[in-house]
Amino acid sequence: MKLQSILLLIALICISSISAEIETEIETETEKECTTDGSCFEDPSCPSRPHIIRCAAKYLDTNQNNKLDREELETAIAALPLLARGVLKIIGSVDKIMAKCDADGDGAIGIDTDMPATEETCLATCFKRKAFKAAFFPECDL
Q1: CA 36, CA 53: separation in Å to the nearest integer?
Q2: pLDDT at 10
Q3: Contacts of 104 (CB under 8 A, 6+ apart)
Q4: What are the structural domains, with CATH classification, of the chain?
Q5: Is the per-residue pLDDT at 132 higher than 80?
C-alpha cells in the first residue's frame, strides 16, 4: 500500500512537470470535420471547444441553469478517482478554472455568455480539452 502511494506521488509529479512542455508542443488545433450530409467527426486527439462545452452542459450542469456553478464543478471534481483529480490539477484548481472561464465574475461559468468570452483563456488548448473530457465525460459524443 505504501509503495502504491509513493508510485502515485511520483506519477503526479511527473505529470505536473511535463504538462507545460506537452501543452506548448500541442500547437495544431484540429477543428470538427463535417461532411456534406451533416454528419460530423470529432477528433479524439483534439476535441473542439464547442464539443467540450456541449458535453459540460449535459454532464456537469446538474441544475440545468445553463451555467456551471462553482458547487457543480467542485462536486464533479470530488467525484473523480484520486489519480484523475491529480491529472485534472494540470488544468487547474476550481479557483483557477473560475478565473479563466468566468468572464463576468458571478461565480458561475455561463455556457452561452462566459464560454464565448473566454476563448483565449478557458480550455484554449487541445491538451486541456482532452484532459477535461477524459476526466469528466470520456464517452460524450455530442
Answers
A1: 24
A2: 55
A3: 110, 113, 114, 117
A4: 47-142 (1.10.238.10)
A5: yes
Residues 6+ apart with CB under 8 A from 69: 63, 107, 108
Angle in degrees, 0-180, between the axes of helices 49-59 and 126-136, rounded to the nearest 10: 20
Residue 42, H or E segment: none
pLDDT for residue 29 is more than 50: no
CB burial readout 4-40, b (16+ within 10 A) else e: eeeeeeeebeebeeebeeebeebeeeeeeeeeeeeee
Does the pLDDT value for residue 37 go beyond 60? no
In this structure, what C-alpha cell is assigned to residue 82? 484520486
Q: How far apart are the C-alpha atoms of 131 and 59, rounded to whole Å?
A: 15
